[in-house]
Amino acid sequence: MNEIVVAPIELEEVAYEPGVGDPLIKRNLSMLGHVNVRLDVVLGAAEMSVEKLFNLGKGDSVALDAHLDAPVTLQLDGKSIARGQLMAVGDHFGLKVTEIL
Q: Flagellar motor switch protein FliN-like C-terminal domain: from which residue to which, for each copy (predicted)?
């Protein structure tokens, strides 16, 4: 029988103390720093019947359950990781992070 031996990996534990400009994750990311991830910004949600959904057309509006000045949520793989305010970055939307979850 072939035996597979796996050496343990020791990870450095770092206590996170939030502060202005601190990174979201304080770790040595030399092995993972090049990996791209997809972040989603959630503005709000809406609930409607399937009939109403199928009747939506160009120019129709869908009201969300969030106020205009409410913070939006930053998600990584469906998990909320931060909140912030929408802002303009040139001709694009941006997010100013105000809270790390």
A: 32-101
How many domains in the chain? Answer: 1
Is 4 in contact with 35 (CB distance < 8 Å)?
A: no
Convert the pLDDT of each residue in 8-19 to its tens digit: 656 555 554 555
Q: Quick check: pTM over 0.90?
A: no
Range of the domain at 60: 1-101
Tokens of 67: 């106020």
Which residue matches tokens 């305010």? 85
Distances in Å between the Cα of 64 and the Cα atoms of 8, 17, 50, 72 are 48, 34, 16, 12
pLDDT tens digits for 43-93?
999 999 999 999 999 999 999 999 888 999 999 998 999 999 998 888 888
Q: What tokens were used for 14? A: 């770092």
What angle (nearest 5°) sits at the alpha carbon of residue 38, between those of residues 12 and 34? 50
The long-range contacts involving 17-23, CB below 8 angstroms and separated by at least 24 positions, are: 18/100
